[in-house]
Design brief:
6 helices, two-stranded antiparallel sheet, mainly alpha, about 210 residues
Length: about 210
């Protein structure tokens, strides 16, 4: 018996090729379902972020330019007070030796006290607040303690050498200049932008918060 001839198909009646299976999109929250072939992209930290730092807890390390501007603003603020103080001392004192002694001690105390108080109580001086910077303690969460803030800013009091007439002011100025150069070099070379005085304070760090 001859099998019947299959019914001829007209052009355009051919079955459409089946589309390859498409993996479902990953859910909005939680890990992707297993067996879908989906591989999440690797996490890439922001440029300039310090390795090992929790990105959701702290920002990126503060750069040299922002920190320089912040120090410049703070220097102007304290400098105005120092100028007024020296003017008053010169007006009421008859001894230039006594004036120089009191001025050196008061100037060192003002600079060190300003940075120590604001960084330990608020984590920010006025200059750092303007530049969106914040100082964190060694735990990278809280403000530095009073001692830690004083240790990281101790170089601002090098002018105390001015209590020694004539040569003291020169030595104090050179010591401050050397400290500033050391800080700038450390900030540019250290991955976490910590300078020597940050490490002297136990590991304080300046971060960008805005």
């Amino acid at each position: 018996m001859v099998s019947p001839e299959p019914f001829p198909r007209s052009p355009g009646d051919e079955p459409a090729p089946s589309a390859p299976p498409v993996a479902p999109p990953p859910p909005a929250y939680g890990p992707p379902p297993t067996g879908t072939g989906y591989t999440p992209p690797p996490f890439t930290p922001p440029m300039g972020a310090a390795p090992g730092m929790p990105m959701n807890a702290v920002g990126q390390p503060g750069g040299l330019a922002d920190r320089f501007v912040a120090r410049f603003i703070d220097g102007l603020i304290v400098g105005v007070v120092v100028v007024i103080l020296n003017f008053v001392l010169a007006a009421i004192s008859n001894s230039w030796l006594l004036t120089g002694f009191i001025s050196a001690v008061a100037t060192a105390a003002l600079y060190l006290g300003y940075f120590t108080y604001f960084e330990s109580s608020r984590g920010q001086t006025i200059g750092k607040q303007v530049m969106k910077l914040k100082v964190l303690g060694p735990d990278h969460v809280s403000n530095p303690t009073l001692e830690q803030a004083a240790r990281r800013n101790i170089f601002t009091a090098f002018g105390i050498a001015g209590v020694v007439p004539i040569i003291g002011s020169v030595l104090g100025g050179l010591a401050e200049l050397a400290a500033v150069i050391l800080i700038a070099v450390n900030i540019n070379s250290d991955p976490q932008r910590q300078h020597w005085f940050d490490k002297f304070a136990g590991g304080t760090q300046v971060i960008k918060i805005g």
